[in-house]
Amino acid sequence: MLKIIVPTIMLFPVTWYSNNSKIWINTTSYSLLISFMGLSFLNQPNNNSNNFSMNFFSDPLSSPLLILTMWLLPLMIMASQYHLKKEPWLRKKSYLSMLISLQMFLVMTFTANELILFYILFEATLIPTLIIITRWGNQTERLNAGLYFLFYTLIGSLPLLVALIHLQNSMGSLNLLTMNFWLKELPNSWSSNLLWMACIMAFMVKMPLYGFHLWLPKAHVEAPIAGSMVLAAVLLKLGGYGMMRITIILDPTTKAMAYPFLMLCLWGMIMTSSICLRQTDLKSLIAYSSVSHMALVIVAILIQTPWSFMGATALMIAHGLTSSMLFCLANSNYERIHSRTMLLARGLQTLLPLMATWWLLASLTNLALPPSINLIGELFVMMASFSWSNISIILMGLNMLITALYSLYMLITTQRGKPTFHTHNLNPSFTRENTLMSMHMLPLLFLTLNPKTILGPTL
Amino acid sequence: MLRRALRLGGGRGLVTRGPGSRGGGSTPGKDWDGKVSEIKKKIQSILPGGAWNPLYDTSHLPPEHSDVVIVGGGVLGLSVAYWLKKLEKRRGAIRVLVVERDHTYSQASTVLSIGGIHQQFSVPENIQLSLFSASFLRNINEYLAVVDAPPLDLQFNPLGYLLLASEKGAATMESNVRVQRQEGAKVCLMSPEQLRNKFPWINTEGVALASYGMENEGWFDPWCLLQGLRRKVQSMGVLFCQGEVTRFVSSSNHMKTTSGTEVTLKRIYEVHVKMDHSLEYQPVECAIVINAAGAWSGQVAELAGIGKGPPGTLQGTRLPVEPRKRYVYLWHCPQGPGLEAPLVTDISGAYFRREGLGNNYLGGLSPPEEEEPDPGNLEVDYGFFQDKVWPPLAQRVPAFETLKVRSAWAGYNDYNTFDQNGVVGPHPLVVNMYFAAGFSGHGLQQAPGVGRAVAEMVLEGHFQTIDLSPFLFSRFYLGEKIQEQVII
């Protein structure tokens, strides 16, 4: 792992000591190189893990997420170039340092061997994200958003700390590699229910689960573009990844305790999708669609079947790429029109046709069009949940329908229609923006050809 | 706190001290109430939900971002805000900020106007606008209803306008009335004989024809409309800010048209709003700017760079709106025309109407071009009344020979020097500035219709109900005047 961690840490001197005119190209290219290096993690011949050291390992579950994280850093840096243009050099470098430190923590989180190390890094990722949202966000509401984000996640995860320390005391070790082997059934008592709640709540808030999702629209909308990208693509998946790891030790309790959360997820999916239909703010729409997709992932993880785990992993990767791409598209709109309201930027297809192509592709993958991996994920989750309970197909089917509705609504409002007078002089799409979109879309399309890589540990 | 409680509690049991100490015990109590509400306000501003800057108080500043910024909070600006909020498809879709320099409206044309509304124009669009406004004003308590607020009483006096024409102007008047009738206005033509029968106080010497509006014409209280609009617009979620727009920050794109000429299109992305009596300003990031600044629309347009270019080109075409001062005089005449008197406009241009029920009348005259008063201040020239206004009025209405001027005021007329009709719609070069200004004296009566037209332009991209394309800015460059046929 040092081959990834040390270069990431070395990105700090790259930003601070580079020539001022070269910081963007240097950081972007080096982070791209690091992500290419990480592609070797995809070599997973079997279900076992690649153990790199006493502290780090990678697994068919964590390697796709790891590669997604590393792939996202150059994209985030490319996307931030425009809105940081007018800032002084010191602030630009601080912003990049925040992104790089976040990247470092995330890489270590996904490969952590031990649950307490995972927890520490999980919490550590909050700090650079909070700084990015509250310092570089666009509006005064960002302070509010930062507060919500920080306190929701912290309060959710404090019980997890207590639970982990208790488990460490009682079990002696929280090493993920050996956890499979000292599994004991949890006794059927109130204390195991509490333990279950304590372990799971942190990840539920992070995913987010429908009842605890209030922080997400605020944080996504107020964050600058790199913050939105990393939040949507990676930070939400931390919750999914953590839940998949920790449910190993929570075994029979999950069968009973998961019911309320499953109900909340199934209901929440439809609620948040319906809210998307009524949204006027573009970023807010994409944020609520994230909640909706993640609700599917929570359902998959709580059902605990091989197929659902495959669906969950596929959906996490697919949603990461799609959501991040949608945020980049919304940001390209915002940079031109200086407003996030969808209604004010209509008819863009005639003005920016190539960007319209990216909008179309992103909307199509968002609504899970075959044969994209979004569909594979959703399909597996749906089939698994159907086998868990036949009635859930109604809710899931309704959700798919509403997802298609709002994705198309977003596409048609922004792209079709008569362009307005105040869009007469839009800057044409920059090469940087087109590269950004293609770097999101091409992995998504290529993964359609070989989805085995992202189907996770139960393949 | 403890000490006070001990003192108050101990005061009863122990030896009672004089009333001085009891008074000393209760005044901190009164102070404490004020302190508690202050603390409560501070806590509320810190908790999530408020826009809070930890370093200094920003509650008086406008927000850092707004989708639409309306420069000018008079009746036109508020009308645009109202219709933007009414025609947006989802509630809360568009964030609107109205920036008004003077919240007392001491110099605004809206409140200094005499509040007349009539349909006797020659341009069909003007007639349609006034007709819509009349129906808006009739149903104002349905349009501008706010929960738990009392209904508005506009004091609409539907007494009509009476325009008088001499031999020379009779033909124009007939053709105008034909256009008005086509559009649906109810106007009737009267001969001098009929005039004398209907209004015995008129001296019909020199009058060949008169047109009298029978429905939807009259006068109303502009303050009431303004307050009603303000109340409603605030309840719909529009933000108000007291400040002056001092700068537009814009980005330019140099582009080429299909024929190869180079144009520079600008887009305003930030508006600097300066607070009153201080150097503090707030940059408001915006997507659309609406220029509804009334008499000062020309200055606001210059801030945006409209008119900076070689004359004769589109870049060099200014917004030709400038403030002109108009006087309104209030006089008392006990033998004057009765309660049924309409707003009479004489052949000379002098006009008067009844004001209230105490034999008071309002009136004035638009001075000819050469004798325009200086618009630097709003001082009233009573000599103008003596020399120019009184003689024609006294000739037309003999009862006005004995009158006593009670008071007078002056107001600005946002005069369009090009063709004295309004400017509506986007500017061809500054792509996100929309105009709703320059109505030269009939802005108040056309405000609801114009507001709706601008809102449709912003939200739909074209005029839907009333087609105001003759009023676009490009007519200044193309030289297409839409002038009212003035009746002499």
UniProtKB/TrEMBL annotation, chain A:
<dbReference type="Pfam" id="PF01059">
    <property type="entry name" value="Oxidored_q5_N"/>
</dbReference>
<dbReference type="GO" id="GO:0048039">
    <property type="term" value="F:ubiquinone binding"/>
</dbReference>
<dbReference type="InterPro" id="IPR001750">
    <property type="entry name" value="ND/Mrp_TM"/>
</dbReference>
<feature type="transmembrane region" description="Helical">
    <location>
        <begin position="228"/>
        <end position="250"/>
    </location>
</feature>
<dbReference type="InterPro" id="IPR000260">
    <property type="entry name" value="NADH4_N"/>
</dbReference>
<feature type="transmembrane region" description="Helical">
    <location>
        <begin position="23"/>
        <end position="42"/>
    </location>
</feature>
<dbReference type="InterPro" id="IPR003918">
    <property type="entry name" value="NADH_UbQ_OxRdtase"/>
</dbReference>
<keyword id="KW-0830">Ubiquinone</keyword>
<feature type="transmembrane region" description="Helical">
    <location>
        <begin position="256"/>
        <end position="277"/>
    </location>
</feature>
<feature type="transmembrane region" description="Helical">
    <location>
        <begin position="116"/>
        <end position="133"/>
    </location>
</feature>
<feature type="transmembrane region" description="Helical">
    <location>
        <begin position="389"/>
        <end position="412"/>
    </location>
</feature>
<dbReference type="GO" id="GO:0003954">
    <property type="term" value="F:NADH dehydrogenase activity"/>
</dbReference>
<dbReference type="GO" id="GO:0005743">
    <property type="term" value="C:mitochondrial inner membrane"/>
</dbReference>
<keyword id="KW-0813">Transport</keyword>
<protein>
    <recommendedName>
        <fullName>NADH-ubiquinone oxidoreductase chain 4</fullName>
        <ecNumber>7.1.1.2</ecNumber>
    </recommendedName>
</protein>
<feature type="domain" description="NADH:ubiquinone oxidoreductase chain 4 N-terminal">
    <location>
        <begin position="1"/>
        <end position="109"/>
    </location>
</feature>
<feature type="transmembrane region" description="Helical">
    <location>
        <begin position="284"/>
        <end position="303"/>
    </location>
</feature>
<dbReference type="GO" id="GO:0008137">
    <property type="term" value="F:NADH dehydrogenase (ubiquinone) activity"/>
</dbReference>
<comment type="function">
    <text>Core subunit of the mitochondrial membrane respiratory chain NADH dehydrogenase (Complex I) which catalyzes electron transfer from NADH through the respiratory chain, using ubiquinone as an electron acceptor. Essential for the catalytic activity and assembly of complex I.</text>
</comment>
<dbReference type="Pfam" id="PF00361">
    <property type="entry name" value="Proton_antipo_M"/>
</dbReference>
<keyword id="KW-1278">Translocase</keyword>
<feature type="transmembrane region" description="Helical">
    <location>
        <begin position="351"/>
        <end position="369"/>
    </location>
</feature>
<feature type="transmembrane region" description="Helical">
    <location>
        <begin position="62"/>
        <end position="82"/>
    </location>
</feature>
<keyword id="KW-0812">Transmembrane</keyword>
<dbReference type="GO" id="GO:0042773">
    <property type="term" value="P:ATP synthesis coupled electron transport"/>
</dbReference>
<feature type="transmembrane region" description="Helical">
    <location>
        <begin position="94"/>
        <end position="110"/>
    </location>
</feature>
<comment type="similarity">
    <text>Belongs to the complex I subunit 4 family.</text>
</comment>
<feature type="domain" description="NADH:quinone oxidoreductase/Mrp antiporter transmembrane">
    <location>
        <begin position="112"/>
        <end position="399"/>
    </location>
</feature>
<keyword id="KW-0472">Membrane</keyword>
<dbReference type="GO" id="GO:0015990">
    <property type="term" value="P:electron transport coupled proton transport"/>
</dbReference>
<dbReference type="InterPro" id="IPR010227">
    <property type="entry name" value="NADH_Q_OxRdtase_chainM/4"/>
</dbReference>
<feature type="transmembrane region" description="Helical">
    <location>
        <begin position="145"/>
        <end position="167"/>
    </location>
</feature>
<keyword id="KW-0999">Mitochondrion inner membrane</keyword>
<keyword id="KW-1133">Transmembrane helix</keyword>
<keyword id="KW-0520">NAD</keyword>
<keyword id="KW-0249">Electron transport</keyword>
<feature type="transmembrane region" description="Helical">
    <location>
        <begin position="309"/>
        <end position="330"/>
    </location>
</feature>
<comment type="subunit">
    <text>Core subunit of respiratory chain NADH dehydrogenase (Complex I) which is composed of 45 different subunits.</text>
</comment>
<keyword id="KW-0496">Mitochondrion</keyword>
<keyword id="KW-0679">Respiratory chain</keyword>
<feature type="transmembrane region" description="Helical">
    <location>
        <begin position="194"/>
        <end position="216"/>
    </location>
</feature>
